[in-house]
Amino acid sequence: MKKVLLLLLLPLGMFAQDDLLSEIDTAAAGKSKVESAFKALKIVNLESTKLAAKGDLYFIVAHRFGSVKDGFEGFYGLDQAVTQLKFVYGLNDWLTISGARSEIAYDFSGKFLLKSQETNGFPVAIAGFTSLAINNTLKESLYPEMKFDNRLVYVTQLLVSRKFSNSLSLQLSPTYFHENFVIDDNQDNSQYAIGMGGRYKFAKRWSVNVDYAAHLNRSSTSQFRDPLSIGVDLETGGHVFQMHFSSSQGMHESGFLGNSTGDWGKGDVFFGFNLLRVF
């Protein structure tokens, strides 16, 4: 009789064990890291919350033509192009470092992951970004008393993004930056901005990207404007190709946050692209 009862109860025990394991698997699966809020390390100009994976080396060619408003005389910007060459390396899964050089500046930076977005868990991804730039446009011929320290620019950003769906991701980037030298005597050296950006994926390999930065304490006499950039990303195997129009020709943070000269209302914008290759 006991043997018969054991045989009858054994399937029930197996089902109960299976149910328990199923609940554990479901709980584990319900809270996981959200991947690929952004496919590229930058939205357009603004840094995204994406980091390089451990051991990955990126080579990035960023190019900005001159203003299209120059028309045929400037060959629609082709005659005044600026190029940035940049290397980015993932030291580990939470820290990325980079070094870059353009005609405008040398730039060295680090980006570090503070918290990942989770499904059914933490609602946003948070990363920190900091950079040191050396302004290459300040020439002793123009400013005879110029010292090396005057060329330095420091930037600190908090990057907060959320992937709302497979198609839509948005980001906020509160920013502090300090220029040791400012052209406008009325401009504070310490400056503040709020960066905003987003990505909308409209096809398997295509997305439209937009970013904008509102300068919070720009001098009323400043010649510079807030940067707005609009473009598309194309994912092609081992790299991402970004094409865009921007009101800034500068590619390092302080270059576009504090020194953008373009004006969309007057057609004074710069066509450019970022080409990323991963090794």
Give me some keywords for this one.
globular, disordered N terminus, mainly beta, 279 residues, 44% strand, twelve-stranded antiparallel beta barrel, 12% helix
Order of helices and strands: HEEEEEEEEEEEHE
End-to-end separation in angstroms reads 69 Å
From the alpha carbons, calculate the radius of gyration and give it in angstroms.
24 Å
Structural class: mainly beta
* Strand composition percent: 35-45%
Question: Can you summarize the main beta sheet?
Answer: 12 strands, antiparallel, barrel
> Which geometry do the CA atoms define?
globular
Helical run tally: 2
Write a structural description.
Helices cover 12% and strands 44% of the residues. The protein has 279 residues and is mostly beta strands. It has a twelve-stranded antiparallel β-barrel with strand order 1-2-3-4-5-6-7-8-9-10-11-12. The protein is globular, with a radius of gyration of 24 Å. The model is unreliable at 1-28 (pLDDT under 50).
Furnish the topology, listing elements before pairings.
Blueprint: H1 2-30, E1 57-67, E2 82-92, E3 95-102, E4 105-115, E5 125-135, E6 152-163, E7 168-179, E8 190-201, E9 206-215, E10 228-236, E11 239-246, H2 253-257, E12 270-278
Antiparallel strand pairs: 1-2, 1-12, 2-3, 3-4, 4-5, 5-6, 6-7, 7-8, 8-9, 9-10, 10-11, 11-12
What's this, in brief?
This protein is mainly beta. It contains 2 helices and 12 strands.
